[in-house]
Automatic annotation (TrEMBL):
Domain SCP positions: 34-142
Listed InterPro entries: CAP_dom, CAP_sf
Gene3D superfamilies, sorted: CAP
Residue span of region Disordered: 71-90
SUPFAM superfamilies from the UniProt entry: PR-1-like
Lineage: Bacteria, Bacillati, Actinomycetota, Actinomycetes, Kitasatosporales
Entries under PANTHER family matching the protein: SCP DOMAIN-CONTAINING PROTEIN
Protein name: SCP-like protein
Pfam families: CAP
Length: 158
């Protein structure tokens, strides 16, 4: 498993109704439940899904598999903030956690990703940053690097 974290300053939470998680896969929903359990256990509010952040996360998870580029900077030079804006997110700064190399049953995949992210200070800071109120989760099957198992995770925070 490999993972990386990125963050810019989040903006104040807007007075906008949260968007539902209709487009999320069962695996992504399960990951969000785990992340929200970690957040609430540490005194932060649960994250709600934002369609722009979700679109950015899905798109970048697939792009990392397609381009074999495991980085917060895309093969075309775009940052997490660039991708979030391109996907329609306009509320301010973003954080991004990425990971690759998970396989197996859904519980194992989600637990491994959560454990990896919480064991890394940058990822942990993104997950437990109470200023973030919105998120998008993306998972794509496929091999980014032959030294790791299949699977690409992206979580974008806003």
């Amino acid at each position: 498993m490999a993972s990386a974290a990125y963050s810019t300053a989040p903006a104040a939470a807007p007075a906008v109704a949260p968007v539902g998680a209709e487009a999320m896969t069962a695996l992504e929903k399960q990951a969000l439940v785990h992340v929200n359990a970690l957040r609430t256990a540490h005194g932060c509010a649960a994250l709600v899904i934002d369609r722009g952040l979700e679109k950015a996360a899905h798109g970048y998870a697939a792009e990392m598999v397609r381009t074999h580029n495991f980085s917060h900077t895309s093969a075309s030079g775009k940052s997490p903030g660039d991708r979030a804006r391109d996907a329609g997110y306009t509320r301010g700064g973003v954080g991004e956690n990425i990971a690759m190399g998970f396989r197996g049953d859904p519980d194992g995949v989600v637990n491994d990703a959560d454990y990896g992210w919480m064991s890394s200070s940058g990822h942990r800071e993104n997950i437990l940053d109470c200023d973030y109120t919105r998120t998008g989760m993306g998972y794509a099957a496929g091999n980014i690097d032959p030294h790791y198992a299949d699977g690409s995770w992206v979580q974008v925070f806003g």
